[in-house]
Every structure is written in structure tokens, then in C-alpha cells.
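Lab notebook, page 48
Experiment: co-folding of the full assembly
Goal: obtain a model of how the components sit together before planning crosslinking
Operator: M.T.
Materials (sequences as entered):
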Amino acid sequence: MSTAYKTVTDIAGPLLFVEEVEGVTYDELCEVELQSGEKRLGKVLEARSGLAIVQLFESTQGITTEGTKVRFLGRTFELGVSEDMLGRIFSGSGRPIDGGPDIVPEKKLDINGAPINPYSREFPEDFIQTGISTIDVLNTLVRGQKLPIFSGAGLPHSQLAAQIARQARVLHKEEVETEGASGSDAKAEGKFAVVFGAMGVTFEEAQFFQQEFEKTGALSRAVLFLNTADNPVVERIATPRLALTAAEYLAYEKDYHVTVILTDMTNYCEALREVSAARKEVPGRRGYPGYLYTDLATVYERAGRIKGKKGSITQIPILTMPEDDVTHPIPDLTGYITEGQIRLDRGLHQKGVYPPVIPMGSLSRLKGKAQGEGVTRSDHSGVDAQLTAAYARGVEVRELAVILGESSLSETDKAYLKFADRFEKEFIAQGEQENRSIFQSLSIGWDLFMELPKAELKRVKAAHIEKYLKKRS
Amino acid sequence: MSKPTIVKVSGPLVVASGMRNAKMYEVVRVSKENLVGEVIELHGDRASIQVYEETSGIGPGEPVELTGQTLSVELAPGLLTSIYDGIQRPLELIQNQAKSPFISRGINVPGLDRKKKWDMKAVAKEGAMVEGGDVLGAVQETTLIEHRVMVPPHVKGKLLSVKSGSFTIEDTIAVIEDAEGKKHDVCMLQRWPIRIPRPIGKKLLPNEPLATGMRILDTLFPIARGGAGAIPGPFGAGKTVTQQSLAKYCNAQVIVYIGCGERGNEMTEVLTEFPHLEDPNTGEPLMKRTILIANTSNMPVAAREASVYTGITLAEYYRDMGYDVALMADSTSRWAEAMREMSGRLEEMPGEEGYPAYLGSRTAGFYERAGIIQCLGGENRRGSLTVIGAVSPPGGDFSEPVTQNTLRVTKVFWALDAKLAYKRHFPAINWLQSYSLYLDSLKGYYDREVADDFVTNRERAMTILQEESKLEEIVRLVGTDSLSPREQLTLEIARMIREDMLFQNAFEKADAYTSLKKQYRILRAILTFMDSALPIISHEDFEFINLQKLQVKEQIAQAHLIAEEEMEKFDLLEQEIIKQIGTLRTGDMSKASKEAVSA
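Observation: model returned without errors.
Model output:
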């Protein structure tokens, strides 16, 4: 049993200063025992000779400078993992909260993980069909990608994430060759799992996901880590790491294809800011610590595929942009790390368009290899570029029409205006339960192109126009 | 005296006492895990050390070992085709030694293979007087590059012996006797500290463009060989795609690509793609002229700070051999943030936005290592190092410190624009904000090598684009009807320049690279259209719509797909333009408009 120190001198925010310590190491886990006998976990943020600065994962309420015992555990924060975690619900610090027994761990893993050697990575290129037109055609999701949803308060990001988790699957060869005619419920290869990490979300939101998983039978292959809004703020720093550690274990050791949903990253960043402020660090933009980029990278980069391993981790973090402002440090730094983003738009939402995914500002960086012959269909990338460009132009025309009146628009502009309206109603909008195949989505796109003069279709190949564009009656 | 011992650990910063013998920037081994670190501050016997590996589990009381060396890179044959982390450890060896796809700590692997033998042909004459930079021998390092083994920079004297044959990089290949009679054994392997620029003969003025094959860059905003350029832009605007295009197609002989704090999958893409891509000039795999440095965003932050210096020192080494080298750093903002993080942990007084006060001088020092030079040594070789740094300004706001400090020292500014990217216009480089200050020094080259009206045409194109933005504002207020025919023509030509010339698809094989000559012909064809149309549009019967309906416009739109070997097709195109516009002349006007009506 290690020494228990009773030398807490300062308590500030989530931080404890423990003096006269010996043999303490950086990032070491420790256990703080209150006078009442209650135990809380913390980790060492700074180790000096004779002083340790400890950050608690829970609140410091009730802790006294006298009588509190601190034990350093000689290891970093570890998560006991096993395949039995599937179907279980854990707290934000990894304790089971579904009333079930403790997990008998197969092994214990450091929750900080280790960076994947870029040399050992396999480039992700398997197309994932989510059944959502705006994602499949315009912002193609790839197995092993990290694609966040940039949302705002009150937008249906949870529904969208749940829909992706429910519908996402990889097409098999026959389906691509026959353009989906071979039936969709053919057996998919590989094992699938969902890991869900909630940071500071409301009880209702957490329930929404839980019920969603129960309803679709996905719960038995899901692992949930829940830190709700009333749980300790600092615990949120550990939650995504726990989720990703479980995901890495399932993906790289047990061959699962794991989809990780993390919500809400904004709460995570705010917890970081709180700790940083308590340490009196020099703040970067808007009070967030200067190392926010590095820290977020250690979360987001834990996605991908590894050479020689069957499993994969696809990450879908959700963040709500304060004031819908994409230049806010959280979405901004996230966008620099992740491989694109799905952006939700309040304007579309108010028009009643679900999912309100706006093509302008949404992006999938890995789509290049997941579009085209053999993967989806040869006209895919052309349709993608043409739809986005035409919609952008249509929105511009719409703004012009507000000033000048619709009658003063040229014929071409009017065509774009009509295109944009139909695009929103028929292509972007779809039902929450509607699962469109990529081929259906593409043909909606071709249908919309009929609104435009043929000479304007510069981004699609002539051969594809010949083949797919229906003749006007 | 006490032994060097750790007294404090805070993230990548470790403070140790008992460090009286330490030098600034000396490499040290930290703790029992043997982590690599570098001394960055000294106070009495206390030293602040930035550690290039993860420090969790390290604590006060553990030992620190001095190595006596400053952070250096190894220079010898074998660098090309390598993939390194930020401190020149080959990623492949890290994987082999760690026996895991994850990067573990305390791995100590040499930057270059010690056992491999290279065939060297002696070039220098025994008995001759040689000095730093003179070539001793030549090694065919890859099929593309002949590695020139040079006399180390500070050695000078009589060459006693030099051997041809098969050697490892540590074998002695030559002996030089200096003025004091001291004999120096020279092997292929040399070291150079990364924070000190390698010495040169003298700097020259850049006067040749670095051809990149990207039309907006080469025609509108060219960068010179030996120049420095910056690509700032918000995320999703195409920094990385542009940098990768440059690495693939620019006509430098050696490429150093630094992925500094970027995405792991993106580095993997480069790693898997480059060995299969062909060099457009030689047909050999691109990898044979490339060195990659990959320090992804979740790898230790201090190594990120070092990675740009590691990269530029390797680049300078090939420049010294007399090659044209291009270095891409993606992204320098991550490098600046790494400095900010270390500065914060050192509790330095922050400058703007928390960045250290020396951000400006460090940035300038880095870009100033670019240049076209006369190499060291008596042989009058010329080498060049072009540096292109990506900048990732928060929120795409160019007024932030990293962008501003970079713009002060770079002469080319390629401003990426999110709005263009949203419209899927690529490369999303804003033609109104971007600039190149090399136009004057490159004029001689264009007149000589391309055409004497290249520069005038370029200026005309820029004027048209600028006029377009003014006219668009008017259109937004009062509509197109109020514009004069001349102004309508300007809008039409500007659209052609944007869509048929500047738009370029990096993922389409036939479109990814365009030679300077072809770029000139595309632009000339568009301007021919303008010149032919100008005399007739002001006629009062003229219907502008007839001009817009001309079939030849589609041909212009396809002109970028004309093969490089079929340049004569441009002559036909220009004739066709003149002919078709000719049919619209006043005499035929009524006929043409009738046809338009019936259609």
C-alpha cells in the first residue's frame, strides 16, 4: 500500500496542491480520500520535487486542507477492457451505472492511448453508405474517418448522429455492380459496434440515444459512457478518452468496425478551459488554453485504420458552435484536425428541412477515393461538384432576387433559383427513417439537373450527361 | 557537484538541477526511459528541457544524462525516400522497434542505415587543395539524384587520399590535411545542428520561376526558385491539396515535405501515394526525389517545433550539392503554436495572442533560409531552396500574428478563400487578395522563354478580374441591364478566365499539370475572344446574347485539355474564335438574331 499524504495545502477550482510528496510522476493517477471516507480520483498535472499539483476528475466540494488523504497509485488512468463491455453503460469516469456487475477486465489500458505511427496507418477508402443524400453524395463518409457535426443549440444533431449510427453500412461488391438491385439486407461483413461518449449533455439527450439504441437493438453492441450536465465538469476530460480506449480495444484487438459518437465537444473544451484557468495559465483565444489544438488532436486523431488489423474506428464528434459561429476556437481548431465537417444550418432548419446539412461549409476530405467507378458510380464526383456549385449559385441568385425582384433575373438565373428550391426540398430534405441508397440519391441529383440549361453542366462529364440525364419532354 | 536530476515535470517541459555543465540547445536523455530532450533555458544549475516524447509517468528524482551534442541531423546518402518523425527517426524503424503500430517512448534509432553500402566514385583529385563544399565523390542515391559527397563546411586543406568503391556511410573515404598539418578523416556521414543555417558561398537574386503546373500560380502569382511563399487559409479551403500538388508537380529536383502537426491520415495518403506517382519530368516514382517528415498533431508537441528545422537542414544539404530544392511546410501555424505552448510553460511574458515575443524573429529566421545561392566551395555550383509554408489562421482571419509575421518575410502570398471553396472553385486562391513580388525579376525569363507579351497578357487578365469585382457590385444593386456592352463583355471574359483558365482539378490526371507555354496559349485564346468581340459589340443593333451563344466558347472551355504535344490546336482555336465572332458582324447581324429567335 502506498503512502497516504495528508499534506494538502491549497485547493483552487478542481486543483489540489499536495506538499512534501516523494516519487510522484507526471500524469500519475491518485485517489483522494475525504474525511467522510468518500474517495475521488485525480491525476497529477505537474510534478515537482516536494509538490504535486493534482487535478480531480470530480468536484472539490467538501474537501478540506486538513484530514484529506491523497494516495498516489503509481500508474496513469487506466480502463479495464473486455468484450463484455458491449451492451453496458458506464459513468463518465468509467464505473458501471446500469446496475450490472463490474467488468472483469481482460487487460488494462492507459486512457491516453499512444499516437498511431503514420507509417502503420492504412489509408481509409471504404465508402460508408449512411442513407442520407447530403452525406453520401456530397460529403462522403469513409470507414476510419473522423467527421464531426458542426451544429448549434436547438438543431437536430442528435437525430442525425443516431440516424447515421443506425443506417451506416458498407456496400458489398454485387450491390455496387448492380446499382443496389441485389437487395440491401444481405449480410454485411465484419462485426460492428457503437461507442458513445456523452460529455455534459442533458439527461434527456442521453436518454434519447439510450432509447434509440434500445429500439433498434443496437444496445447489445454498444458501449455507453455518460457524463450528464449534473455530473462533475472535470470528469468530462476523461470521458472521451475512456470511450476511445474502449473503441481502440474493440477495433484493433477484437476486429470490430467501431463508430464512435462523442457529444458535445464544446462541453469538453469548456472543462479544459476551467482547469487551465484554475492553473492560472496564459490564455489563448477566448480564454481557451494555448494547447487546445494539441489536446483536441489527442482525441480526434484516435480514429482510422491500421495495416494488418481488420477493425476500424470512425469518429463522429458533435459540437455546438456558440452563436453558430464557425470561427469560434472550438469549431475552428476542430476543423483543422478532422477530415472535414458536416455543418448544420439554422436557416434550413427553420424552413423545416431535415437534416439541415448545408453543402456550403460541409466537406469530407477523404471522399476522393470513396467516389466513383467500382466504389459507388463513375458519375459520383461530377454530380457532387455540380450539385454543390449549382446550389451555391442558386443561393446567390436568391439573394439577388430579394433586392432586384425575381422578374429582373435572366433566364439562366431563374433556372438556378428553381434548382436551389427543389434541391432543398427534394435532395437535402428526407425523413428521419428514410434510408436512401447512394444510387437513389444520385438519380435525384440527375433529376434536379434537368432544371438547368445543358451548357451550365460544366462539372459533369459529357458521357455521363448522355447516360443519366433524362431527355426533356 | 550534484548529478543532473529532474525536479519538475509539466507536460513536455522538464526542469532539472545539477545541470551546470549543460550547454544551450544540448541534447539530453531524460529519465530511466531515455527520452530525447533539448535544453532550452539555463538558470544557474537549473535547466529547462523540452522533451520530444510523452512525459507521463516521469517524476522528480529521476536522472538526466548529458550528451554533449546539439540537436543535429545526419547527412549522407539514404535520406531520399525516407520518412522521418520530427527529430529524424525513421518511422519504419520506430514501428519495427516498437513492434506496434503505436509510437512508444524511448526508442533510439539512427536516422540513416549504418550497414548499407553505397558505391562511390571519387571525383576530386588527390593532392589538390580542397575546401568546405568541394565535391569529393559521387553516389547514385536514387535513379533521379546523384548524391555529391562534399568536404565538410569547416575543413580546408590538401586532399591526401580519396577512394572509389563500396562503403558504408561511416567508412573513411578521404583524408584531408589542413594548414596546421592535422589530418581529418572524412566519411560520407556528416552532422549539422538543425538550428544553424548551413554556410553558403553567397546569396544571389532569384530570376527564374519555379514552375508548378498550377495555372493560377504560374500565370498570375508566380514564385521564383529560391523564393519564399505563404499559403494562408481557413480549414477546408485546400491548403493541403495545394501543398501536395506543389510537391508532386513543381519542377524542383528534390522535395522536402514537412507535415507539421497535421492529420495522420493525410500523411498516410502522401506515404501511400508518392511511391506510385510518376514525376512528370522523368517518369520515375516521385518518392525518389522526396524526403517526408511526418509529425502528426497528436505526436509530442516539442518534436513539432523541431520538425521544421530538421526539414530545412536536410533541404539545405541538397541545395549545397547544387540542386533545386523545394520545401513545403504544412502547417507553420502548428509550429508557432508549439512555440507558444513551450513559452507558456516556461512562464515567459507573452506577446500578441499568447505567442512568444520572438515569434517574428523565429519566423523570419526560418524563411530567410530560403534562397538561390552560389554553393560553398571552389566549383561555382548553384543551388536553390524554395520554401512554401502553409499557415492556418484561426477563423480564417489573416490579421492574426502568425499570418502577419509570415507575410512580412515572404514575397508571395496565395490567399485561400473559403467562399471559393464552398463554390467548389479550386484551387480556391483569391485572385484579388493574392500577390507575388517576383514579377519584375521574372520578366526577363518570360520574355525569353515564353513570349514577349506574356507579362502584358497577365496584366490584362488581372485588370479584367479587378473590373469584374467592381461591376459585380453594380450588378448586385441595379441588375445587368444597366451595364454597357463593353462592361458586359468584361464580365463575360472574366467568367471565362475564372472558369476556363483558373479553375483546375487537381484530382483529374489530365488537368493537374499545365506547362507555362500552354497556360499562355489558353489565356491568349480568351483574350483573342475579347479583342475580336470589342469592335462589334458597341454597334447599336448588336444583341449580346448572340455572343454568349457562340459554340466556340465551349471549345475555349475545353482548351485546358489540349495535350502538351498538340500546341498547334491553339492556332486553330484562335482562328475559329475570329471566324465565329466574324459571323456576328453587322451585315449578318439580322440573320444571326433571326436564327437565335427561331432557335
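Interpretation: The first helix of chain A runs from residue 133 to 138.
Next step: discuss with group before ordering constructs.
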